[in-house]
Amino acid sequence: MKSYAGRYLLSVTRVDNQPLSEPLLLEFSVPGFVDVELANDDFDFYELNHGKRIGRLNSNQVQALQNDYVGKQVRLAVYETGGFSGIPGNLPDDVPVWQDHAFGFSARLVVLAERE
Length: 116
Known about the structure:
Blueprint: E1 10-15, E2 18-29, H1 42-50, H2 59-67, E3 75-85, E4 104-115
Parallel strand pairs: 2-4
Antiparallel strand pairs: 1-2, 3-4
């Protein structure tokens, strides 16, 4: 979960109005043409609330933002997409290894609309 530090994820608890046995935490994106006010991180959320970008947030500002946002329940129309990324485990010895995550598949949601 360290790779998600500073990011907001969706906790999916129901799919097609059916409860899941365990919530799924998924990354998400909102296309520019979709009118849904969700942010992926503190800076995007600040911009949604204040109409401008900010370069730095202190811990008090972050806490104030999260109080109104983190844990909020919404119903969304989404679709799931995904892909493979990361460093393969069998690189040749002469290839330098860099800081990244292990190779694997990850799913994400694309938000299309907010439902009542």
